[in-house]
Amino acid sequence: MRGMLCAVPEELLAGAGHGSNDGGAIMGYRGFGRYKEALAAKTMDPKIMSVGQDGGVTTALLCYSIDNGIIDGAVLTRKSGPKWVPEQVIATSKKEIIECTGSIYALSPNMYKLKDAVREYALEKVGYVGLPCQIDALRKMQLYPFGARGIGERIALALGIFCSENFHMEGLRTIIEGYCKMPIEDVNKMHITKGKFMVEGKKHAEVGMKKASRYAQDGDSVCPDLVAEYADISIGSIGSEEGWNTVFLRTRKGIDTFYGAVSAGYIETDDINKAKPGLELLEKLALSKKAAAKENIEKRKAMGLFVTRDQYY
Amino acid sequence: MKVYDEVVNMVKPKFAYVHLAACSGCEISFIDNFERLLDMMDMVDFEYITLLKDVQEMPAVDIVFIDGAPCLQSEESVKMLKEARSKAGFLVAWGGCSATSCINNFSRGGQMAQPQHESFPQVCRIVKVDAFVPGSPPGPEMAYNIIKAFVEGDTEYLRYLTTYEVGGFACGCDLMKNIIENALCIGCGACAMSCPTRAITMVLGRPCINWERCVKCGACYAQCPRSFLPVPVMDRMMEGL
Prior knowledge:
The structure holds 2 protein chains of 2 kinds.
Chain A: H1 2-5, H2 10-14, E1 37-43, H3 46-51, H4 57-67, E2 73-79, E3 86-91, H5 94-99, H6 113-119, E4 126-130, H7 132-143, E5 155-161, H8 169-179, E6 187-193, E7 196-201, E8 205-208, H9 209-212, E9 233-236, E10 245-249, H10 252-263, E11 267-270, H11 278-302
Parallel strand pairs in A: 2-4, 4-5, 5-9
Antiparallel strand pairs in A: 1-10, 1-11, 2-3, 6-7, 7-8, 9-10
Chain B: H1 2-11, E1 14-19, H2 25-31, H3 35-43, E2 45-49, E3 61-67, H4 75-87, E4 88-94, H5 96-99, E5 131-133, H6 140-152, H7 155-162, H8 173-180, H9 190-194, E6 200-203, E7 206-209, H10 219-223, H11 231-240
Parallel strand pairs in B: 1-2, 1-3, 3-4, 4-5
Antiparallel strand pairs in B: 6-7
């Protein structure tokens, strides 16, 4: 399996450790973590498609899960107003889920909402959508619930979103108003594609990621994870055609939920290997994120700074 | 059959729960495992735990949970801790009061019925601690996880708790000092979720601590994904999901 899928030399894979193919059923491009299947997908619901960031798969999966009792609510992030300040919400209906569609490139500390979801909303099966680092936080919380009584076992579905970097709210505003020369209120959609930060709204504007990245939060520079390696299902746009999502199915629960949604007509799929630019590009980016993280961690260690105990590359 | 039972009992690790100065919240949390408590009893023999068993003196055991801080002005309490250490193979500082002293840090004495009782240091200042579990109280699942890991010899799980980083004097300040000052914070909000007193609010994606409310239990720093990341345990977990 590995030989068939793999785009990197075998000797590189040999030392991969985490993320390499070491089980029969698990396939691996190096850089994508453990996963069982990679495919291209998009929603079949035109309403979700019209508001979705790319293929609308995250929203479609949540809608399917809530319709079929896989979750009874989800902790999500939405745009709170025209200033694009992210707001963390507990969505318990399809309508509320669809309101949270679309990406906001600013910090959204939605882990704390899990407590409210369980305590105040009394949800038994909680869905969670997070960035790779937030999925790490979620898994750590499930394994070591120092202050998370009864939350870990109620996590029914963890969806991870690809992430190259994230911004402070003011950083985001600076990029849009400073570089793109456009009031943030006029923006309808933000996008990071092909090395550019793009905004759509009253006009189209873009700025190179090299410039925009100086406003990224520094914590991201030691993050090795582009594709949410510990989610049940990871979803992003890099690698697939426009209007489609690249999807990694990582756990049994992820596979069951995803194919449930496919057979119920929420999602259509396609072969990711036919897509352009395909997984090769995604792998290149994922590996360069890992390399950068490793380098930055070494640099910080050399300065005598504390860095997170244990990381994966 | 009798012989078999005896052999099983011989190899089954013995467990004790010692209570020092604390509110009993951590003990309640321990018991809040409900049905899982039966599984825990299958894994270890509960030899000494005052809330569940009428035994006056702690016997020698394989694993002991220490709940609460010892009082330096109480000879009895220090003696009890030292005795527990000498009688136990593996000592777990269970809960904020023993791992970090928690609210006991605020003690200045002067209270009836023992106004001379004023110093409640962390357990690790008096005896060697093998595993720290901060949190006030820690989630009940932590007790189950630790006992399971201990019985199965799962050092991969335990090793993150054995360093003195997660124990000793703790404060919401740890987030500033170790995470934000080292440019590690990613604004996930796990600290705010774990805070038992809701002293942490996330402002512009960073923790903001209400110092009047922080009880210095250490849960936020331990819960932060950037303090330690249990990657091998996470890998194992993913296989079961």
